[in-house]
Predict the structure.
Amino acid sequence: MKSKFILLLAVLMALITTFLFYNYMETLNKDQVANRNTVNVVVAKVDIKKDQKISKEMVSFIKMPQKSTHPQTVKSFSEVDGFFANSAIAKGEPILKHRLANEAKEKVFVSKKVKNGYRAVSIGVNLVQSVTNLIEPGDYVDIVFSEEQKINHDQTIINTQLLLQNVYVLAVGRRMIESTSEDSHIEYASVTLELNPTDSVALINAHEKGNIHLILHSRIIPPKGV
């Protein structure tokens, strides 16, 4: 009787082991099939900043399992080339459609370009103050303030100081995207800058008291901390 019980238990264990083995193999086969079903997705080849215009040179393809791919994932260069990033995209990160904006959208709302905690403030400029209208949206500038001060009844001096540094340019005139070689040059008389509230007040006060000049940064070497 005892030997029959042991035999029955052995057969039962063998059946359970066989079931678990086949169940494992079926799951493994499904995973292998899923991994074979891959798609090309577009990822950032470099760090892409918010509001930066994306080119083909800034992205590349990688293969991902189809079941792991987000529905909004971009799968072709044409979906990103010439578009703008709504937010920063890290190197190697898959690019999602809802994080892109086309040129038409970029022209509409400057409020969508202002970072949290900052404000958009405009000042009037002439050709000299705006580096001969060569400043473009997306550039960084320093702001120099100068005013005439009396030292006695018949003598005045010009006091000049560096007011603000590394200020982001949101727009020039009513243009919120940089011009292309195909665009005809349009002169502008104002520049819209991104500043925190305190610096905004300081800039407006300086603009009312004296003269403001903008000093253009290099795009090749971005400002520290940007």
